[in-house]
């Protein structure tokens, strides 16, 4: 459905490299709609909650150190199939396995970007990072050119 939403975060490496505009442009050009965005340095508690499912992994502490080390741009994007399609646009977790044309494939960063992997994960992640009042429900005037 057209009101499917996903959570997308650009981590400190991408923010420091000035990749935010390029990444927003890709989702915008695709026809997806930005309904929430903010820049913050996440607390350890926020990071640990976000990555709770990875807490037993050997890289967990390093991952939390990294994502709390600088600014993160947290976004919510909306549109048909956005959870699955955004994952495809982002590429594989390992940038070396990511196809050219994907964000990770094109920018080759080691831990570049994160996008929800399933609709239920997306709902959980959006709830961790955003208050409902921080999300904007709107209809772009271009919708008629994007959806039948
Ligand atoms: P994704 O970011 O593609 O959703 P994930 O949820 O499995 O991947 O992992 C979250 C982050 O953890 C990922 O962006 C980078 C880091 N990570 C994953 N696997 C890793 C590994 N084997 N070694 C180091 N960091 C890893
Ligand atoms: Mg993930």
From TrEMBL:
Its cofactor is Mg(2+). It comes from Chondrus crispus. Keywords: Kinase, Transferase. This is nucleoside-diphosphate kinase. GO terms for molecular function: nucleoside diphosphate kinase activity. It holds the Pfam family NDK. GO terms for biological process: CTP biosynthetic process; GTP biosynthetic process; UTP biosynthetic process. Residues 3-137 form the Nucleoside diphosphate kinase-like domain. Its EC number is 2.7.4.6. Belongs to the NDK family.
């Amino acid at each position: 459905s057209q009101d499917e939403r996903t959570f997308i975060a650009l981590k400190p490496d991408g923010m420091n490299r000035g990749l935010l505009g390029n990444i927003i442009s890709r989702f915008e050009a695709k026809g997806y709609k930005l309904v929430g965005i903010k820049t913050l340095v996440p607390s350890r508690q926020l990071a640990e909650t976000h990555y709770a499912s990875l807490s037993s992994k050997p890289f967990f502490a390093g991952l939390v150190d990294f994502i709390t080390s600088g600014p993160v741009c947290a976004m919510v994007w909306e549109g048909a199939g956005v959870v699955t399609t955004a994952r495809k646009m982002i590429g594989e977790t390992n940038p070396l396995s990511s196809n050219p044309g994907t964000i990770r494939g094109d920018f080759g960063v080691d831990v570049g970007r994160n996008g929800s992997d399933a609709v239920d994960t997306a709902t959980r992640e959006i709830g961790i990072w955003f208050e409902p009042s921080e999300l904007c429900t709107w209809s772009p005037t271009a919708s008629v050119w994007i959806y039948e």
